[in-house]
Amino acid sequence: MRIHSLSIRNVRGIEQLDLSGLPETGVIVIHGDNEQGKSTTVEALRTVLMEKHGTTRKEVKALQPVGRDESPTVTLHATIGPHTFTITKNWLRRAKSELNISTPRRENHTGREADERLEEIIREHLDENLLQVLFMSQEDLGETISAVGIPSLTKALDGYGDDGGEADAGTEDTALLAAVEKEYTRYWSAKRGDAANDLKNAHRACEDARTEHTAAQAGHRELQGFVDRHDRVSERRDRDAAALPGAEAEETELAQKSEVARQAHEKATHLRRELQLATEAHQRAGEAVAQRGRLRLAVTQAEEELELRSRGLEEAQHAAEQEHTQLQQLGEQLAAAKLDLEKTAGQLREARRHQRLVTAAARRAELSAQLSQVGELNERVRALREQAGGRQLTDADVTAVEEATTEVTLQRRLREQTAAKLELGAPAGTQITVDGESRTFDSAPLHVELAQGTELTLGEITARYLPGRDETSGTDPVAAAGARLADLLAELGLPDLPAVRAAREQARTAAEELAQLLRERTGLLGGADEETLAAELARLDQELAEVELPEIDAAAAARAVEDAEQAEEEARKLIDVLGADLAPWQERKAQTTLTTLSVRIEAAEANLAAAQQSLAEAVDRAGDEILETALLECGKVREGAEARSRDAEAEVAAVDPELAESLHLGAQERVESLEASISEAELTLRELQGRIEQATGAAERLDKAAAALAAAQHQFGSVSRRAEAVRLLRGTLHRHRDAARARYARPFAEQLTSLARTVFGPQVEFSLSEDLEVTQRSIGADTVPVDGLSAGAKEQLAILTRFAIAGLTSRESVDGTVPVPVIIDDALGSTDQGRLGLMATLFSQMGRTSQVIVLTCEPQRYNRVVGRTEYAIEDLKSSGMLL
């Protein structure tokens, strides 16, 4: 298969893309930034080949253009086998399909017929699995391939003997294998080999019969259990019914005793409450007498406290007056010092402002001069770049023109040596015309080379040389070499080789001068950024635009700042000294002592007044004699309550209410338990009677289950013998098939190893599974599983495997070339620079006979590939054509 052109309309983010005139072989690099449609281009190519126009699968729905109500459309012009065709498919809205075949005979199909005809062509000359493998997406870079799953590759490998030549074996007998596999799956699972379908059903039927037999045996045993349990429950019910009357009489007697004990407990509780109240009243009377004594003591203590506080008041007042005078004097001195500090600080700010202005003005002048020089260099650089605009001649261009000029000279001389000549003689001065050019005879004969169409004019006679058939065959080497030289000169836009050499020398000189200017500009900038310096100059211009600059230099401004800083420092030191002198007085210890003493005197006076008032109010409420009399009366009441409570507690101890209640509850529980047991026994007997009646016929069920089990075991034995037979047949066929695969695994491994030596070295080897999937890579003595390889090695192996498959399937094509292109979407991203050069060699080798299409955002990865063709995807989308 070869791709000639691809046109995409309204597919995802691509509104229009046209790819035409693709070379039949070579590496084609389509590059562009991310999100520009490279992967979409690959998906569109895959979809037009493999998806019907009427499908609504999610893969096709994903082609719907973004933000536009249009149908995705893809047109492909390609050759598969002998068929050259153009297929156009629309999906989703306005779905359609058109197939036009131009060779080997013209055919036109539309709709479903077009889809089916394209599928027939692909099925006849390729296969879908091969297409899927050789369309390599970004997700496939780390995945290995099971080569046996590709029919085209299996067909290419099958039949190669150990010597590498063709053996008599053909492709695998898939019909027989499929028939055996179908019969095998009647009895066994395809994946794990477990019993399935007929065998599983026969085994299940046997197990069900065995289960039923076991259940019938259990039912028969259960019936016997019901009868035995009925007898035991009847005996327990009769025993509990005989014991119930005695238990009821005992419960009545203990209930009466419990009631007497409860009444005695309630009486004792009432008397304990009376004793508590009498005790609390006696305690309150005693507390009232004690409180009266505490009030009298509080008045005495308050009088003593007031006298003690009043003794130091006069001395504290004198110390507070002296402290106030000292604070006032030192505060005035500190305020004056602070005013002086503000004055010196203002002078310092002004001096620093002058210094900043002088410094900024100097920097502005320096930047202005620096940027002026940079601007001059920039102008010279711009002029050189304008002069060097357009295509720049390279040494390769000069070499190509030199070689073409040499070839023209060589071919002319060879023609002069071998071409037929016509020798003419005439008097000196005679003129003739040769191919429109006038020539004059001198003393020597005139020689004219004879070539196809050479024309001579002698006076009124015109002669034209027409060679024979043998002389006209082939092309004119001189004309071909001249045409090649003319094409090169026309491409360069120069008249001859000296002009080409002069233009190359001029380009080299301009490049050297440009490099020198760029170095000078870099040195002048001193590592800074030109835009940053320009921004700084603009800021300084704006800052100094409306400012009057001081008429002093930088040194004078610096001295003024130093003088102002020294004056400010002296003012600060004076403030610190005065602050230190003032700090002890600011604590106001004397005033604090006076205030504390005054407050304490006031508090003592208030305490004395409060204590005197509390004592007077208490005496008014009740005199001392009244309190003493109340205390004696409360004592007598408490003693009577204590005697009555002791008698009641003795009566309670005699009857023990808690024990009486416990005995009554135990007797009551026994009666309830006997009644519940009798009731439960009655219910159980009724249930057992029903189960016994329900289990009638258990013996008959057991007999039937035994017969069914024997029949199921016989059927299972028959199915098992058939299942074992087909498993033996399948195993035998698989062994022979695996032997055949092992035979043709060698050419696949050799093809893969041959390609891999370019990248991994001459000692590389690969281990393959039975499905021809790479499992290990060995380089010398080092063997690494595929999963243990680096990301770069995995993507290199993925590309190598596809190149190997493409190389092997080429044996199946008529013209000996790869039947499908290898399409790779954004690979070699994890490959280091050393391996990139090796991979480029491999791509170059593959491109000699194959169409290798690479889509990438980094085209420099492929700049070592010989004979590659590069296209920018933005050009394909914007121009609508491939230039």
TrEMBL record:
Alphabetical keyword list: ATP-binding, Coiled coil, Nucleotide-binding
InterPro entries, per database record: P-loop_NTPase (IPR027417)
Segments of skewed composition (Basic and acidic residues): 209-241, 254-271
Region (Disordered): 209-271
MF terms in GO: ATP binding
Coiled-coil zones: 554-621, 664-705
SUPFAM superfamilies recorded: P-loop containing nucleoside triphosphate hydrolases (SSF52540)
Protein name: ATP-binding protein
Species for this entry: Corynebacterium lemuris
